[in-house]
Design goal:
single chain; 362 residues; Rossmann fold; 2 domains; 7-stranded parallel β-sheet; 6-stranded parallel β-sheet; 13 strands
């Protein structure tokens, strides 16, 4: 079978590639991993370039009842036409929407015209904390999908509560490339902590800074960019952490891997998560974690690989960091690596490919 005759899978997300979060990194890997599994991925999103995919910026706003407001109707019409043109060109067998937005309405409306199968992939906040407009329509969207994938047991429960039947629900934890994310030089440095993620409130970096203010021997690098940078810089100055906490900005994978290997502990103080890929990548580098007990985090960490505490509690997180940095404590770098192997991307992307192939054959 030639590449042109392989089933085409349209991977679509309203999340910009520039966010560099877990959703976009998963889509990066799907683009790489589907062709060896007999599928042709086509990627589309709001800031794709001709080299990476197709640019499509769908207007997804809706009123409180989940319906477009009168003023939004022209934008909705343009979005529907834009998506129809893309579908006519690509002719996908399956469309996979990552992170639930109002784009689901356009995909459902056009499905009878183009005859594709539709897979909705929930990643976290899209199912746990939808906007009022999305909350009104989410049960109908999910029930109408040919398949729904989620990244954690918590999200699977939400999908079930919205009426998704078991035969269409697939829990697929995020998978890390454990060949790339692996132990190696440099050696871990005592007292060094790394955290990574977008600088947004849900990541809880303000809690991390409060916790670090009571650990005078700890050094911390926070990798990532986002709207909260200025506020976090102000907190670093206010707490007197300028010599010990570095906002490193976005790090390329090689630089982040090097930082994780140098760290004695990975910190994830999040208020909200699905199945955090950053946590699995840290474990794969042999770096244990201190994290909050939300989302899929407790499904990943064990007593030997991480310490979990309630969210929004800087004192508890400070104690978790102190315990995690204690070289006589319970955490093990070898156990962290072994745990990450259970979340390798081989199993993750094979599951996605199996779902896509099955639907494409119908």
């Amino acid at each position: 079978m030639t590449a042109s005759s392989l089933p085409r899978i349209l991977l679509l997300s309203a999340t910009p590639r520039s966010d560099r979060g877990g959703v976009q990194r998963m889509m990066d890997r799907l683009v790489e991993e589907l062709p060896p599994r007999g599928l042709t991925p086509v990627r589309a999103g709001p800031d794709e370039t001709p080299d990476s995919g197709t640019r499509i910026d769908l207007e997804v706003g809706a009123g409180r009842g989940g319906r477009p407001t009168l003023s939004a109707l022209p934008g909705a019409g343009r979005s529907l036409l834009q998506l129809a043109r893309l579908l006519a060109r690509v002719r996908p067998a399956v469309v996979n929407l990552h992170f639930m937005t109002g784009a689901a309405a356009y995909l459902l409306a056009l499905r009878p015209v183009f005859g594709y199968r539709l897979v909705f992939s929930g990643h976290g906040a899209d199912l746990l904390e939808p906007t009022p407009g999305m909350a009104a329509r989410l049960p109908g969207f999910l029930a109408a999908a040919d398949a729904v994938t989620v990244v954690s047991g918590e999200l699977a429960q939400v999908a079930r509560a919205h009426g998704v039947p078991e035969d269409r629900l697939h829990m697929i934890p995020n998978g890390a490339d454990t060949h790339f994310w692996c132990p190696g030089p440099p050696e871990a440095e005592p007292g060094r902590i790394v955290a990574s993620g977008r600088l947004l409130p849900n990541k809880g970096f303000d809690i991390l800074l409060e916790a670090l203010s009571g650990l005078p021997d700890a050094q911390c690098t926070i990798a990532g960019e986002g709207a909260d940078r200025a506020e976090l810089e102000g907190s670093i100055a206010r707490l007197g952490l300028g010599a010990r906490v570095h906002l490193a900005g976005h790090l390329e994978p090689e630089a982040l891997r090097r930082a994780l290997r140098r760290a004695s502990l990975f910190a994830m103080p999040s208020r909200r998560e699905g199945m955090p890929l950053a946590l699995i990548e840290a474990l794969a580098c042999g770096t244990p974690a201190a994290a909050t007990a939300i989302g899929g985090i407790p499904e990943v960490l064990t007593e030997a690989t991480g310490i979990v505490v309630p969210p929004e509690d800087a004192s508890a997180f400070r104690a978790a960091l102190a315990r995690g940095l204690d070289h006589g404590g319970p955490l093990s770098r070898s156990a962290a690596r072994a745990r990450a192997e259970l979340f390798s991307d081989e199993a993750c992307y094979s599951r996605y490919a199996e779902i896509f192939r099955t639907l494409a054959a119908r």
